[in-house]
Amino acid sequence: MNKRAVLALIGMVAVQAAAVAAPADEAGFECLLEPWQVIEIRTPVDGIIGSISASRGDTIKRGQPLVVLQSQSERVAVELARLRTKLDGAVVAARNRIDYATKRQARLIDLERDKFISAQARDEADAEKRLAEAELQSALESRDVAKLDLQRAQELLALRTVAAPFSGVVVDRMLNVGELAEAGSGRKPVLKLAQIDPMRADVALPAALFGQVKPGTKATVRAAVGGGRFNAVVRSVDRVIDAASSTFVVRLEVPNPADKVPGGSRCAASIDGVAPIARPRP
């Protein structure tokens, strides 16, 4: 083989090698863009649904009231407990008794000094004052208990309202106004919510790359739907390798403040400093 033929053959091999290597580097690691978390909303207590402020596809904000159960009796209980905290009649009466008992005791002390009354009358005056002080203490304790009753009634009323635990979207709505909402994990949920900012992408890496990826490493995710590229960061790395597949999972956090990341789309992830391992050619 002459020199020109050898060079031509080397050039063809280089081109083929570049063609094989380029797609692998460009493709990156396969992944799937998913909401950061998906939860089902249930009420903490049983009750008839009074209102639902969100439907399927709606955007929600953290802390926004979503589900309110009928709560007329609980509201009345709160007002009754609040009224009891303002009742000072027993406290005022006890203080008046103490004032009267104190003055009477002072008069009897003077009379006893002049030998006009017996010691028993003085003892009765002392006992009367102590009883009045005990009544005041009991009235003050009852007022403290009323404050706790108010707090308890307010907490029970708060259980009738379910607020959004995060900002996101409503994926589905299972119950409607007027239906019975039941507490418990085995009961039918009212709403299904998804947090889409940030999104997540779980990447299964071969065991040969174990130890090369650290939390905080920057990455890039390319969505199959729309072809958009999005910045990401490694949020967590599995500490255990799956023996069956000889892989470990790296979770990427993909910021999505403008809701442009297509949830549910397949994607390809490129992690800084980590290159895909070339598969052996058959």
Task: Summarize the structure in short.
The chain is elongated. Strand 9 and strand 10 (229-237) form a beta hairpin.
Question: Could you please describe the fold and organization of this structure?
Answer:
By secondary structure, the chain is an alpha+beta fold. Helices cover 37% and strands 29% of the residues. The strands form 2 sheets. Strands 1-8-11-10-9-12 form a 6-stranded antiparallel beta barrel. A hairpin with a 5-residue loop joins strand 9 (218-223) and strand 10. Helix 3 (89-113) runs antiparallel to helix 4. The chain is elongated. The two termini are 28 Å apart. 20% of the residues are buried.
Q: In which order are the strands of the major sheet placed?
A: 1-8-11-10-9-12
Q: Which range does the strand content fall in?
A: 25-35%
Unreliable sequence segments: 1-26
How much helicity do the residues have?
A: 25-40%
- How would you classify the helix and strand content by structural class? alpha+beta
